[in-house]
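Ticket #4471: structure export looks truncated?
Reporter: QA, pipeline team
Priority: medium

Steps to reproduce: submit the single chain below to the structure queue and open the exported record.
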Amino acid sequence: MKYTVTDLSKVKKSVHVNVPANDVDAKINFMVKDLVRDLKLPGFRPGKVPHSVAEKRFKAQIYKESTSALVNECAAEAVKEMNVTPITDIDYDGPETVERGKEFEFTFSFEILPDFELPAWEGIEIEEEIEPYNEARTDETIERIRLQMSELKPLEVSRPPLDGEVAFVDFSATDEEGNPVKGFRGTGYQLTVGEGQLQEDFEAIIKRLSPGESGEGQVKLAEGINNEFAGKTINVKATVVSLAERVLPEVTEEFAEKIGAGSVENMRSSIEKAHKENLKRFAKENTQGKLLDGLLEQVEYELPQSMVASRQNALMAEFRAEMRRLGKPEPKDWDMSEAEVEADLHKQAEKFVKGEMFLLKLAEKEKISVTPQEMEAYLVDIAQRSGLNPQQLQEYYHQNHLMHTLVDRIRTEKALDMIYDRAKVKEIEAKPKAE
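Actual output as written to the record:
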């Protein structure tokens, strides 16, 4: 194999490879031999199919696998000799398959870490603002738990629902021409009155109906409910089927035992501890962000554009999903033009990639590695937070060749932790937020 290297930029290299015809033939012969070992064809004993017959019968498969093997082997050998570490997958440009008796010529490109000097990153003095704990947070959490464990008790009354009560409602809607509004229909909808679950004008119809009564009224749909009718007035018909009151359990020792806290005192202390840990974690993340921003201001380097584009595409997908959730699927419905959104997301992507390159450079210098146990624990954590099966998630990462991205993610997090751990952090109480 012979190859020549071209620097497309400071962070991107292109490698042109020539594989002699005899090496191509040798690889094809190896693939044929490997296939024949367990091949079964009518008229031949297992493993005794002539190589010429096997190659003719399975030519497409053999040549495709030979091409893939040669590209991977040549790329690995060239990259090793170049003494560089690709941070992206190689981009292949060449024939679809090799041909027997012919030289195999192809090009592959990849991006590498930018080369720059790390600024002084140890011993940085910084203040960390920690929000003081408010006892009301404990009470709010207990109230949420009580609400989750509440029961509905039917109300036998002949009056409209009161705030805090639950109304079971059937409803539908028509447009100005009397046509049904698609997607705006419900049966047995459970509404907790007075909590802003529905638009005020919609809830106002329900709040004047007793169980068994029906009524209707005009409702002007707000943004994010129904994109087709957003801002338009529709006619809503509703029936209150029944009412119920929400009965919350008392905060007793039995209640605490039921949720696994053991006692009311332990429950309150556990909730307080969890909240304080969250406040500390939030403060640490903010401090880490400030530390990294300060370091990034001291360096400039070219960014791998494929990584910037990949990050920007991911941000754009998230933005579009959020716009669809708000009932604004088309760019014409957005508060900014599509070009302005793209420009803003591009800046965000560049900042993210610049930070990632800095942390990977630090990880490389400090020889930060990742153990299989750390990777497994990281995947389990992702699975738990996402509600996914850890084994299936691990298989997904393997099948889609994403394990190297996982390693890089863990290395950058460990590098950022190292900057934080070696900084001179002074904890101070956060100032009250302006109303």
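Status: closed, not a bug. The export was complete when the record was re-opened. Leaving a note from the reviewer for reference: The chain has a mean pLDDT of 91.
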